[in-house]
Amino acid sequence: MAQKFRIVIVGGGVAGLALATRLGNSVGRAGRAEITLVDKSFAHVWKPMLHCFAAGTAANENDRISFMSQASRHHFEFWPGEITAVDRSAKTLALAPIRDPANGELVVDARTLEYDALVLCIGSRANDFGTPGVAEHCMFIDNLVDANGFNDRFRMELLRAFANHQALDIAIVGGGATGTQLAAELHKALDIASLYSFGEKPPKLRITLLEAGPRILPAFPEAVSDAAVRQLEAIGVSVRTSAMVSGADENGFVLKDGSRVPATLRVWAAGVKAPDVTSHFGGLKLSRSGQLEVRPTLQVMEDDNVFAMGDCAFIAEKPVAPTAQAARQQAHHLARYLPQWMNGKPLPAFTFRNKGAVVALGDYNGWGTFPGGTVFGGGWLHGLSARMVHLMLYRQHQFELYGPVRGTISCLVDWLDVFVRPSVRLD
Ligand SMILES: Cc1cc2nc3c(=O)[nH]c(=O)nc-3n(C[C@H](O)[C@H](O)[C@H](O)COP(=O)(O)OP(=O)(O)OC[C@H]3O[C@@H](n4cnc5c(N)ncnc54)[C@H](O)[C@@H]3O)c2cc1C
């Protein structure tokens, strides 16, 4: 029997899981291609929710999608594994050995997978730009492990602050969507936790948001940045713009002007760079942030059979910001055109369609922008419309992956859960 066309997708994030599911449902189901998804973890999470997992305001048991279960329902295969290299002449990729996290014992040897088409979508992480002390003394919110690790520390430090009648100082570097939303979400977590514990005197949270640029939320109109600062200050977050961090240690951050920002918990949520492994992908051209440079067709510069999309890709001719919106659109583009390309038809160029952006500051406020720059949200409804849109984007993603029936059941389960469990993680 002739070998089927093999498409290997590495990274089951916003872009990769949408692509694997759509291709599985089309060419996988029809038996025209063998689709394999590889990811270093076993479950998918919607990355724009990571700050909620870090604060404990979302229960990630309900929000994880198992790759194996998704694969079995949508006609693709899943292999757990971390990509370490690509050999483009042999059309193979190397996966690191898998070890038992509990004791380091070898579970699966290093492996090699063969491909006819390879799609790389391994996302990004925050960029500390080599700032001294950051790697050693700061926490990151780049994946579920980081977010859960932060939440463990956050709950312990809150308990310590409560027991010792002290305030808890947290400093967050990066006034983009991640840092700004995290600052508000941590306050929301304490507000909810105080309903269950801490008696009449909950610990005081002193959060400082540090941004090197002249304003926070630079991707939004200035009116939104100003309103967000007012909202954050109203809940007690201190916002410092034009504050360039020059170092970090176990006591806090040092700023370029020599001043210090003391903090028990230090979070680095600034900058974006691709995972370091992109430099082992057979000499593919990289951007300054290590992203794989691609043509408008999402093929890498040097190889027609290797594609990159989402945060780890850089469209040299017409760059787009690394967002979930762009990652999804790129996945939809490849899901639509790869099957034709397999039959020898040329690939059309990807065009990004900006549908606006939304930012939600916990339950306190939220704003959105339409493509023309019109702002909605804010006001006396506390940005309810924007917060609803923010939630709807997540539900849309869930429905895409689960389908309408399981998507609806998943929503109902989440809503019913509110009557059973506290709406913040307490254990
Ligand atoms: C806290 C936070 C809030 C955000 N809010 C928004 C928002 O409101 N709106 C918006 O549009 N965007 C938002 N973003 C950005 C958005 O999440 C990303 O742009 C989007 O997730 C990119 O999708 P992706 O598929 O490229 O990567 P990801 O979704 O990050 O997926 C990458 C996948 O690759 C896997 N992987 C990584 N390295 C390897 C390896 N070596 N081998 C195998 N697998 C690997 C990972 O496990 C992961 O599953 C936010 C990001 C964060 C961190």
UniProtKB/TrEMBL annotation:
For this UniProt entry, the molecular function terms from Gene Ontology, in alphabetical order, are:
NAD(P)H dehydrogenase (quinone) activity
In terms of InterPro entries, this protein maps to: FAD/NAD-bd_sf, FAD/NAD-binding_dom, NADH-Q_oxidoreductase
Query: A single GO BP annotation from the record?
Result: aerobic electron transport chain
Q: What class of enzyme is it?
A: oxidoreductase
Keyword Membrane, does the record have it? no
> According to its UniProt record, which cofactors does this protein need?
FAD
- Enzyme Commission designation: 1.6.99.3
Keyword line: FAD, Flavoprotein, Oxidoreductase
Give the family this protein belongs to, as stated in its UniProt record: Belongs to the NADH dehydrogenase family.
Name assigned to this protein:
NADH dehydrogenase
